[in-house]
């Protein structure tokens, strides 16, 4: 019998998640060498710690291979279109805050809002013969957002890293990315649009609705959640 | 539920019916170059079509419908006039509704003809209605051409009309534009300052990216000119609102629309076409007295249609998508024709849904 808890395998997200569980007297630790992704749990019997990349946690929860998982709202909503049916949000954890925003060059003094972006995109397409490119790794969230807002004549180009640099390198005209302080945006001469962010994200504890649980595991899960809530 | 071979057999029967109505049977490839579809529909098509790729041909899509390949084929080597029929799988990516099929069979009938649009519209509708008779479906009809004519006839700048035309198929954005043009909505302080400044360009920020300074300056100039424009007249706005809310049986809808033509005279030719279509439908035995007409019909889901639009719905099964849809797509032939164009109208049926309905009725 065991309840599997998925936690990001490195960095501040892991440390903060470990701290958050500590308040319920549950001690999570990484064991072995720095490079080995193995973990241990003390303070509660029967809980297994599974260390994973934050990006894989939504998929593992949706597949029912882990019962609980800590990961960002952004990653859940980008990767799981029907997340409400697969996952239950247990608690926002109060760290890992980041907004998914659309940003354009600061020199675009005429573009502040999605309205402006749409108008600029129409003119850009007519002038350049291709649609205005937006670099992002959040394809689904950005596309849904732009469709709801009725923005046309853009295209998404995939960027898995250094997204803020794509405008300067002329592989995109605008970007959509996660930002917490806006520092990287400023350093790359970009500004966020003034509309609401596409998504406000933070690290969140999720429960899989599909992971199988026997009666004992169900009790254990209840105890675990009671202690941290 | 009907199985695949039953659906294929039904599709073959329908195609044979269309053949005996004079259509030439055609086949199109399943893999379509993604670029063509993306240029037509924009990024949204990615949520509806499966995209695949290889190193040689780049991105390809599993055909989300037949219209584009059929038009391309006709534009390349079709005789005129032409009638085509086809049957085969289309593929739709489903992200929100697990009950919707991601692969299903469509059977279609398309007419490419230069003379008498009303007759061709009626021919397609009546043929499909006849094939569907017995299933007790509700037909909905509309005409995007009336709204387009209304926009083209507004007493305002070409730039505003072009912006409205661009968003005809995005009702929310269309509405937002209308509101802005009708009351010259207040500007944000930042925007007002930008338009008043002598030198709007902000030299503090380096010029980066492919959108260059002259393009930014051109847009600021356009914003300045637009800010000086008078708002859309209240009469035109009221008539446009009235037009968009027309929802009656066809003859009453026509009478009602004529009232709005007093303030929107540009729609008159489109109304003559509607009248001719109603007559042509009547001549083909369609019960036009009970045929529903909605002026806003087809604006959200049928983006390449620019004239007559229709759909057939199973009212007892609101969970089902429409059993048949169709319309006129002259502009699409212009876009795909590289200079050539031909008026075209057509419709598609879903044999699988037809069988499912007749099973539950039996």
Arithmetic mean of pLDDT of chain B = 92
Number of helices of chain B: 15
Beta-strand percent range of chain B: 15-25%
Q: Tally the beta strands of chain B.
A: 12
Structural summary, described in words:
The complex is a heterodimer of chains A (229) and B (362). Chain A has helices spanning 11-22, 57-62, 73-79, 83-86, 114-128, 139-149, 183-187, 215-228; strands spanning 3-8, 27-31, 38-42, 47-52, 68-72, 87-92, 98-105, 132-136, 154-158, 174-179, 190-192, 199-201, 203-208. With 229 residues, chain A is α/β, with parallel strands linked by helices. In chain A, strands 7, 8, 9, 10, 11 and 12 form a six-stranded mixed sheet that branches. In chain A, strands 4-1-5-13-6 form a five-stranded mixed sheet. Chain A has a two-stranded antiparallel ribbon with strand order 2-3. The longest helix of chain A is centred in the middle third of the chain and has 15 residues, at 114-128. The relative contact order of chain A is 0.22. Chain B starts with a helix and ends with a helix. Chain B is of the alpha+beta class and 362 residues long. Among the domains of chain B are: 1-64 and 76-137 and 348-362, Bira Bifunctional Protein, Domain 2 (BirA Bifunctional Protein, domain 2, 2-Layer Sandwich); 157-235, no CATH class. At the A-B interface, helix 5, helix 6 and strand 9 of A face helix 8, helix 9 and helix 10 of B.
């Amino acid at each position: 019998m065991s309840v599997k808890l998925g936690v990001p395998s490195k960095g501040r997200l892991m440390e903060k998640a470990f701290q958050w569980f500590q308040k319920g007297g549950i001690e999570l630790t990484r064991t072995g060498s720095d490079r080995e992704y193995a973990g241990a749990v003390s303070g509660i019997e029967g809980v297994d710690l599974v260390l994973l990349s934050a990006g894989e946690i939504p998929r593992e929860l949706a597949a029912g291979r882990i019962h609980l998982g800590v990961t960002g709202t952004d990653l859940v909503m980008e990767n799981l279109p029907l997340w409400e049916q697969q996952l239950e949000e247990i608690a926002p954890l109060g760290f890992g805050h980041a907004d998914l925003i659309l940003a354009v060059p600061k020199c675009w003094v005429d573009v502040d809002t999605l309205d402006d972006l749409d108008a600029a995109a129409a003119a850009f397409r007519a002038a350049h013969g291709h649609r205005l490119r937006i670099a992002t790794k959040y394809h689904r969230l950005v596309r849904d957002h732009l469709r709801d807002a009725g923005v046309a004549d853009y295209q998404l180009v995939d960027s898995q890293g250094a997204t803020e640099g794509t405008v300067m390198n002329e592989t995109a005209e605008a970007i959509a990315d996660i930002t917490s302080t806006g520092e990287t945006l400023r350093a790359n001469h970009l500004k966020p649009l003034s509309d609401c962010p596409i998504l406000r994200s933070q690290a969140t504890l999720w429960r899989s609705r599909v992971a199988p649980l026997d009666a004992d595991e169900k009790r254990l899960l209840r105890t675990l959640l009671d202690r941290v809530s | 539920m009907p199985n695949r071979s039953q659906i294929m057999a039904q599709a073959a029967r329908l195609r044979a019916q269309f053949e005996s109505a004079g259509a030439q049977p055609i086949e199109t490839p399943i893999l379509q170059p993604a670029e063509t579809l993306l240029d037509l529909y924009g990024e949204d098509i990615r949520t509806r079509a499966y995209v695949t790729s290889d190193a040689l041909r780049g991105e390809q899509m599993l055909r989300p419908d037949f219209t584009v390949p059929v038009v391309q084929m006709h534009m390349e080597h079709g005789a005129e006039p032409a009638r085509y029929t086809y049957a085969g799988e289309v593929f739709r990516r489903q992200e929100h509704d697990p009950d919707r099929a991601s692969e299903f069979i469509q059977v279609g009938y398309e007419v490419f003809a230069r003379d008498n649009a009303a007759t061709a519209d009626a021919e397609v509708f009546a043929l499909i209605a006849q094939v569907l008779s017995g299933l007790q479906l509700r037909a909905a009809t509309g005409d995007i051409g009336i709204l387009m004519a209304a926009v083209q006839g507004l007493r305002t700048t070409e730039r505003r009309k072009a912006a409205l035309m661009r968003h005809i198929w995005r009702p929310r954005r269309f509405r937002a534009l209308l509101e802005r043009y009708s009351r010259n909505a207040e500007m944000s302080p930042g925007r007002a300052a930008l338009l008043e400044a002598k030198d709007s360009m902000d030299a503090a920020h380096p010029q980066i990216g492919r959108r260059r300074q002259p393009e930014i300056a051109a847009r600021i100039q356009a914003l300045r000119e637009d800010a000086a424009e008078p708002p859309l007249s209240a009469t035109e706005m009221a008539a446009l609102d009235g037009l968009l809310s027309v929802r009656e049986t066809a003859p009453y809808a026509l009478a009602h629309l004529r009232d709005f033509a007093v303030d929107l005279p540009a729609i008159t030719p489109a109304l003559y076409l509607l009248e001719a279509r109603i007559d042509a439908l009547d001549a083909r035995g369609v019960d036009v007295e009970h045929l529903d007409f909605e002026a806003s019909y087809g604006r959200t889901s049928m983006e390449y249609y620019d004239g007559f639009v229709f759909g057939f719905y199973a009212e007892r099964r609101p969970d089902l998508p429409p059993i048949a849809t169709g319309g006129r797509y002259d502009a699409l032939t212009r876009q795909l024709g590289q200079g050539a164009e031909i008026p075209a109208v057509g419709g598609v049926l879903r044999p699988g849904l037809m069988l499912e309905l007749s099973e539950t009725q039996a």
